[in-house]
Amino acid sequence: MMKQKFISVLILLLFCFAAGAQNRLTIDATQKGPQISKYLYGHFAEHLGRCIYDGIWVGPDSPIPNINGYRKDVLEALKALNMPVLRWPGGCFADTYHWKDGIGPKDKRPKIKNVFWGGTVEDNSFGTHEFLNLCEMLGCDAYISANVGSGTVQEMVDWIEYMISDDDIEMANLRRQNGREKPWKVRFIGIGNESWGCGGNMTPEYYSDLLRQYSGYVWEYAHEKMTRVGCGSNGEDYNWTKVLMQNAARNMDALSLHYYTIAGPGWGNKTAATGFGEDLYFSGLKKGLRMEELVTTHSLLMDQYDPRKRVGLYVDEWGIWTDVEPGTNPGHLFQQNSMRDALIASTTLDIFNRHAERVKMANIAQTINVLQAMVLTRGDKIVLTPTYHVFNMYKVHGDATLMPSSLVSEKYTVGNESIPALSQTVSLDANGKMHLTLSNLNPGKEIRLTVEVIGKTVSKVNSATCLTAPQFNSVNTFDKPETVKPAVFKAYKLLSGNQMEITLPSRSVLALELE
Ligand code: AHR
Q1: Does any domain span residue 194?
Q2: I need a surface site. Which of 18, 99, 226, 240 has the fewest CB within 10 A?
Q3: The pLDDT value given to residue 8
Q4: For residue range 436-487, what is the model confidence (pLDDT) as tens digits?
């Protein structure tokens, strides 16, 4: 009996291989997964290099077209992404930032040295008002990173009152005096950033005590209006998560995690963002995929102390970190962005989507001109990066319901190392439309995929878009801004009722809307 069963399975497998059907996505439409938080598609803007100044803010007197000092072109590009949340003012900068430097008349604002990022002089012309007004213009939530490393509880509490209080009290009145009558909405507050490193070199035990102290005051002054984010681990520092959850799970609503992809061997071996070969293409993707292991392990640890998953895991800094572009300030982290980086973005977002039960926010670093940016600027020109296009294609998953699915994928192998060639997310939005995003990581091979939907008939493909590029290391430049851009995709066939076949071009990201 057993032997017969084995032979039938073998025959089925052989048949599948012969038919080229080893790549198979099965979607179970009879079940519902968790909601994919829209905040997984969040962003991060630090006072670093040309992210804020030049990138977002040029000031009202600039010859570059602007609305009250904000670049018009950048605003338009960011609006199209439906950004759900923007984290500010850092990063490492946050733990050196004293918010009162950035309010009131601009000519009275003190100049400070940005010690972490190239020693650049920061004139504080972009401060609390400029940031929170930007969030209102973009229609996104504000995520403030409070200074624990070199600040005080009182300073944080004053900032909270300044931003969100409508009472007749000193800080709210100071805000009114500075031209803003009504409070802003500030939904998220980070209590320190990288407190294990640039935010104060603390041990997890010491930091968890500070977190209990600071978050108690956030609670008193903001109640449930603000989600309190504890500073989480550096990559695989699982002990940090353990100690934080043990000592302070009740004192936070979320715990962060930072992980950057460094394509070269080991930590710190950054490599060029352009002109790389297949070895660094592959190792960049492989290291990006480590996010799966990190998110799984941190989630498991959190489950032990918080089985109901009240505390969200916020990956509030992630992305690829390469060498800076030649001739630019090494402290300004201005890097190019290639088709490889688009695939790092799509596969990482797939990982977050699949872990939507615990991962409730993620913020790619950083929005403009820094690290894995959405937009690059030069003078009055902008370039939308390949990563921008991925975010635009993936935004449909935000607040949709994850559909349970299982993917059988062939491998993409370089030397003696392999990774799955395919990656995917399937979600169902509030209007009953199914969204399928797929990536083919193999740079030299198109892949045929059979998709089967259990419990639902797919009658129509409403739209299909493909992002690919002439080479795996292709980039968009100021002279050729559209080398990597999405195009209409047609290489799919609806088969009988609940099946379809999709041929994914090599090195591509696809987005399909089905009903
Ligand atoms: O995003 C750049 C830097 O990376 C941030 O300032 C810091 O938090 C991290 O180390």
Answers
A1: yes
A2: 18
A3: 43
A4: 999 999 999 999 999 999 998 898 999 999 999 999 999 999 999 999 999 9
Q: Given this model, what pLDDT does residue 2 score? A: 39
Structure tokens at 270: 């950054």
Is beta strand 447-454 parallel, antiparallel or unpaired with respect to 24-28? parallel
Of ligand 1's listed atoms, the one at least distance from the Cα of 91 is 6
| Domain shared by 123 and 155, yes or no | yes
- Is the per-residue pLDDT at 17 higher than 50? no
Whole-angstrom distance, CA of residue 145 vs CA of residue 384: 27
Instruction: Indicate whether 351 and 233 sit together in one domain.
Output: yes
Which of 317, 417, 446, 482 is the catalytic position?
Answer: 317
State in Å: Cα 243 to ligand 1 middle.
22
Active site includes 170? no
How far does CA 361 lie from the centroid of its chain?
A: 8
Q: Are residues 257 and 391 in the same domain?
A: yes
Q: Find the catalytic residue in 136, 194, 325, 482.
A: 194
Does 250 score more than 80 pLDDT? Answer: yes
Q: Is residue 13 part of a domain?
A: no
* Same-domain pairing of 209 and 183: yes
pLDDT at site 42:
98
Residue whose CA is at the smallest distance from ligand 1 atom 2? 91
Cα 154 to Cα 36, 157, 217, distances in angstroms = 36, 5, 9
Domain closes at, from 365, 399, 433: 399
The answer to whether the CB of 144 falls within 8 A of the CB of 186 is yes
Structure tokens at 356: 């939507």
pLDDT digits (tens, 9 = 90+) for 360-372: 999 999 999 999 9
In a domain, 11, yes or no: no
CA–CA separation, 151 vs 52, rounded Å?
22
Domain ends where: 345, 368, 399?
399
- Tell how far the Cα of 18 is from the centroid of ligand 1, in angstroms: 49
Print the domain residue range for 421. Answer: 23-32+403-514
